[in-house]
Request: fold
Amino acid sequence: MKKFKWANLYLIIVFIFLYLPIAYLMYYSFNKGNNMNHFTGFSLRHFNDLFGDTRLMIILLNTFMLAFLSSLIATIIGTFGALSIYYSKKRTTRNSLLSANNILMVSPDVIIGASFLIFFTMVGSLFSGFSLGFWTVLLSHIAFSIPIVVLMVLPKLQEMKDSMVSAAYDLGANHFQVLKDIILPYLTPGIIAGYFMAFTYSLDDFAVTFFVTGNGFSTLSVEIYSRARQGVSLEINALSTLVFLFSLVLVIGYYYISKDNTKTNRKGGEV
Reply:
């Protein structure tokens, strides 16, 4: 009983530590004043200023478009990458592929960003029309998102019974039918989890994006950093409030989607 109480206290402290700064930021986004020193009254004027800031709105749309595209492509590549790793016949090959996949997970973001910058600079020296911008950021986000998807999909592959696949082949199914009707439906929760994780990583990445952005293209994290150096504006607080609420909606949506898919898989397994 005492351990249970101490565990609850520990969780409460952790959640306070994590969410108190966010709550503080959101609270002052409704401040009538221009700073976070004193709350002078409730107002939505910072939200009005936010929606009136055309540059920031374009950057916001660019950031979400980038996150959507990079996570979608990374999910497709990562899912088939996980299948390739899992179905590798040689154990040494499987371990080597898994280790290579995990390099981007354990490497510091600064090193990854600098490596991409050097690579894209070399490509730019070979092709005169190539320069830093949207495409370099997109390729970088796809690259560091793929390992996340692989690590989300692999556990579902390991949970799947090989007898399901064998039975499908015995019944005359071809490789495409097995993949479409057996493997991918079973992996759906892992694929969805990988997509949402990749989307989140892309949305808030700063270090890698800072190195590879250019040509007037920017993301929220880079823009907020550049504006914060000039002084924190409550317009940023309003933006952060909206992004946090959107992330909360995504988490709730992911919870219900994964819950429904889990129930479907269980029913399929029972049948």
Q: What stands out?
A: The chain is about 80% helix and 0% strand.
